[in-house]
Specification:
Blueprint: H1 3-39, H2 51-79, H3 82-108, H4 110-125, H5 132-145, H6 184-195, H7 197-231
Helix pairs in contact: 1-2, 1-7, 2-3, 3-7
């Protein structure tokens, strides 16, 4: 076996291993997204800007794309096909650039995004009385987190003519006068940060694997190209 062929085999199996890890990471992200979706099923009628719902959908999408990309990488490595490797490289590069851009946007426009999400939730509250599904979701949120309103319990005054929903108070109270003081948006956000901190570490590890997979896919592509030229 020539030196170039030995190098190609080495890169091939290293790339396969990294893409297998990448694929398993995608399965993990998708699984966390499914778990989060099930835990938030009781208030699924809320707008997607609600912190835990938006996180669940983001993880489902990211996990699905990662699984497909990892599968393409494994297949391209085993088959040693330039077309698959090039497709994998382009998709993975776009994925990495999208992740970096998204992280920068969230970091830079953090306050603006929070404000927009809160405004969207407040707009959704206006159909609380006419939409049974939304009413049930808001009641479940407030009972679960022991909170009231989006940013303050006074958010309900315009919706319910100066009164509060019974879900803003302890169970068994027919007329809620002085509800919980903590806002639901912040409580849900805190719950999210407390329950999935390992996802951040997991995401960083996936990012490192993505970079390594990019490097190895480019190396393998170049080696296959050189080998084909040498044969010709």
């Amino acid at each position: 076996m020539s030196v170039s062929r030995s190098c190609l085999c080495c890169v091939k199996y290293l790339m396969f291993v990294f893409n297998l890890i990448f694929w398993l990471g995608g399965c993990g992200l998708f699984g966390i997204g499914v778990w989060l979706s099930f835990t938030q099923a009781e208030f699924s009628s809320l707008p997607l800007s609600f912190p835990s719902l938006s996180a669940a959908n983001l993880l489902l999408v990211a996990g699905g794309i990662t699984m497909v990309t990892g599968f393409l990488g494994c297949l391209g490595a085993l088959k040693e096909q330039r077309c698959l490797l090039f497709m994998f490289f382009v998709i993975l590069l776009l994925l990495v650039l999208t992740e970096v851009t998204l992280a920068l946007v969230i970091h830079i426009f953090h306050d603006e995004l929070d404000s927009k999400a809160q405004d969207e939730l407040k707009e959704g509250m206006m159909i609380y009385k006419s939409e049974p599904g939304l009413k049930k979701s808001w009641d479940n949120v407030q009972k679960m987190f022991k909170c009231c309103g989006v940013t303050d319990k006074t958010d309900w005054y315009d919706v319910l003519n100066g009164t509060l929903p019974t879900s803003c108070c302890s169970v068994g109270i027919e007329q809620c006068v002085d509800g919980w003081t903590e806002p639901c948006y912040q409580k849900a956000r805190q719950w999210l940060l407390q329950n999935i901190p390992s996802v951040l570490v997991f995401g960083v590890c996936i990012g490192v694997v993505q970079i390594l997979a990019l490097v190895f896919s480019m190396l393998m592509y170049c080696q296959i190209l050189c080998a084909e030229k040498h044969v010709d």
